[in-house]
Amino acid sequence: MNTHRFFFSLILIFITLYITSSSDCDAHSNQDDTVFDIKVQQSPLILIGTSLNKNIDINIPNLFNVTFLVRCILKGQPTQRIIRIVQAGALLGRRSCQRFDVNREYIAFLEPFFDGTYRPVDINEIPYNNQIDLLLEKTCGLTRTYPFTESNDTEAVLANKCPSAVSIDCPL
Predict the structure, then answer these.
(1) Which of 155, 147, 65 is nearest to 102 (CA)?
(2) Is the pLDDT higher at 150 or at 73?
(3) Which domains does the chain carry?
(4) Cα–Cα separations (whole angstroms), residue 159 to 72, 154, 156, 169
(5) Contact, 66 vs 88, CB < 8 A?
(6) Which tens digits make up the pLDDT trace of 106-125?
(7) Label partner for 149 (CA 20 to 30 A): which of 1, 67, 161, 167?
(8) Are 106 and 100 spatial neighbours (Cβ–Cβ below 8 Å)?
């Protein structure tokens, strides 16, 4: 009888550890009701790009690093075409939680971190689609800058695409 209790307790412990160490964002951290204009003000770097790779931190399962292909810079200094985003996910002490699913396009709200890396500010990324372009047209303070590329990199020239218009409804 004691053996059954021991194994049952052991199974419960493993289930609890698995659930609490999941890399998914919990329901609380997924709620980001911040207005887009405020997100723009709070973020020193705003990029449109694609998540190419996602590496989960083995020491902290709720954090991961992302290889991100930049196609347009909406705010901030120019970056390399491919950047590394660190400490994405659910960082302790923050209310937001990023997902950056592989092969999906996002608007990322970042800040420079160290050694040429970037990390998310405390704001969720936004999945990018053409409907977002209407929002970008009406949002003040945005630009259309392209990442650094080699002058003979024709693939980069074709991939670097910014929305046709940003911040056009803003007073000069």
Answers:
(1) 65
(2) 73
(3) 2-159 (2.40.50.120)
(4) 9, 9, 5, 27
(5) yes
(6) 999 999 999 999 999 999 99
(7) 167
(8) yes
